[in-house]
Amino acid sequence: MIQSVVHIVDDASWGGVNRLLACFEKAPEGFVHDHHKIMRIDRGLKMSPLIEADVIVSHMSVCWKNIPFFTSLRATHPETPLVHVEHSYSERFAALKVGNRARFEDLMRLAYALFDKVVAVSRPQAAWIQRRGYADSDQLVSISSCVSLAAFEAVAYQRQDGPVTIGAIGRFHEQKGFDILVEAFVLAARANARLLLVGDGPDRDLLVSKAKGHPQISFMPYTANPAMALAMCDVIAMPSRWEPYGLVALEAMAAKRPVICSNFDGLKQHVSNGAVPIAENTVAGWYEQIAKLGTHEAVDRLGLGTGHVSAEWNFLHAWNKLVHELTYFKASTQKAA
Amino acid sequence: MSNPTISVVVPAYNVAATIHETLISISNQTFTDIEIIVVDDGATDATPDILTNYADPRLRVIRQANRGLAGARNTGIFHAQGKYIAFCDSDDVWEAEKLERHFNHLEGDDNVGISFAGSSMIDEHGQRLKVSQLPKLKNITAADVFKRNPIGNGSAAVVRREAFDCIAYRPASETERDWWFDETMRQSEDIDAWMRFILASDWKIEGIEGLLTRYRIQSGGLSANLSKQYQTWKHMCSKVCDTAPAFAGRHAPVAEAYQLRFLARRAFMMRDGATALRLVTASLATSLIPLIEEPVKTLVTFFAAIALRVFGHVFNPTTKLTTARA
């Protein structure tokens, strides 16, 4: 039976989750069993609207401000299975950014207790949630995030000659650690490499000032076509300070670009799929790596990851299964009643 | 044979004078399910003979060309099979119940990744000094580690292997095994590892009551080394800045002031009044927070440095002011 699944999203996660859900729309016929649609929630809304759905999936971030909303969502939909997808938090985030750990733990347990299932977006994140006891083991599901990869696979063989282009794609924010990369690149001063930063965000000025007008560092705003940005790069660098999953790594693998990344949180999963881990995610660590990337041959030697293989299918299959599990039980109890 | 519960890692480089006493204190632990891994880091004195003649079936000796303290510890960790790893430097001595106490602590709370305790201090002859390291024990934050390093010395910590592996990495130049401690550092390698640990994971660092290590203060030493020690501390600090820029922005000046005060106290012990005064002045110039957080200790350091500078020729400092480590 086709179930209707409503994904609720607030402004903060709108863009990213939209791309995630496009995966359902673009899937070949038969791959998606249910009807998924997206619903935008105004930020700071305290009361949940009544939502007609067989399953409701929240992509909103867990924070104290959203607790009234989550509570009313639960209260107004007592029979509807509720799922929360954890896009925000990871172990490194907790280590680096959480001042009051006890309060954070209370928040996580309280919020997760309102949902029937909690979806971790990567295996390392799932292991962390389980170890900390934020969700029970039968409540926790690990579904690695995915986007439609066809556009990335299409640029797999587009190559350019000339200098090696090291690409860094994402939000210009402390999380992504591009400041480390820029500093290391300036230090390494390789004549035959260039650094391309694609994105925008609060750290833009910081990055521009660290780049010191270096002729081999260029900036490019977000594009509606991220595959095109990837096509301009020979290797993708991800010096993230924390990362629940790290979709760019998956996209780069689909586009057959080697990935170099820090080795924690969700990025560990990409390393297990063939991304090259940086020893220490510091200026010195990246300097050492960039100094070796003088030629296209050196880039080729990094090797290609395989994380994209069946990623879409696994993602869709896992969601089909989850929705089925949540609604099958409900349907059978209703029948019994 | 099943794996031991605790692996004790003892780095040993030219420690013939002290290692026997260290090993006896490990062999005599009330917690007995242990392996003792001594890493002979290319010793050129009688250390290898002492190890050969030491009779404890739980002892394993691994020999390597000299890699330094961090490199010896890393080799020990690499070979360790225990669920927990305890570190003991080969000039320090443990109280008999140390491992038992840490075992109970770690088994009792699965969120604790590093368990530590305070230390008493001994001089080079093993005589107890009057001061101790009595650090903060609970609710240890990254700022606490950065500023005051509550773990204190290299023989205080017992770590959970599963947790400690979160800081393992493999530099491009390394072909044999991972690094946990940074082998490019010859000092500050402890605090560097603890900082990476607390900024990488949400395992707890927590202390238990008691002075469970006797930490040996080597007198002598050269003031020139203090400057080197300061440089390695700055290097550690730059890594913290890369990892956590906002955190470092808030805490680095204060942590630096504490480090300078610590070095001032070291200079004082070396009876170098000029250096002590210069360092304590630099500390106060960097941040006044230590004066607010720990006024007595900061002022004592300041006036002791002045006294030594002015009356240095008649004033003979005893080890009374031996410092708790910054």
Describe this structure in words.
The complex is a heterodimer of chains A (about 325) and B (about 325). By secondary structure, chain A is an alpha/beta fold. Chain A has helices at about 15-25, 65-75, 90-95, 100-110, 125-130, 150-155, 180-190, 205-210, 225-230, 245-255, 265-270, 285-290, 295-300, 310-335; strands at about 5-10, 35-40, 55-60, 80-85, 115-120, 140, 165-170, 195-200, 215-220, 235-240, 260, 275. Chain A has 2 domains: about 5-150 and about 310-335, Glycogen Phosphorylase B (Rossmann fold), CATH 3.40.50.2000; about 150-300, Rossmann fold. Helices cover about 40% and strands about 15% of the residues of chain A. In chain A, the strands form 2 sheets. In chain A, strands 2-1-3-4-5-6 form a 6-stranded parallel sheet. Chain A has a 6-stranded parallel sheet with strand order 9-8-7-10-11-12, sandwiched between helices. In chain A, helix 7 (about 180-190) runs parallel beside helix 8. The two termini of chain A are about 20 Å apart. In chain A, about 45% of the residues are buried. Chain B has helices at about 20-25, 45-55, 70-80, 100-110, 140-150, 160-165, 190-200, 225-245, 245-270, 275-285, 290-295, 295-310, and strands at about 5-10, 35-40, 60-65, 85, 95, 110-120, 130-135, 160, 205-215. The radius of gyration of chain B is 19 Å and the shape is globular. In chain B, helix 5 (about 140-150) packs parallel to helix 9 (about 245-270), helix 7 packs parallel to helix 8 (about 225-245) and helix 10 (about 275-285) runs antiparallel to helix 12. The interface between A and B is medium-sized, with 26 and 22 residues.
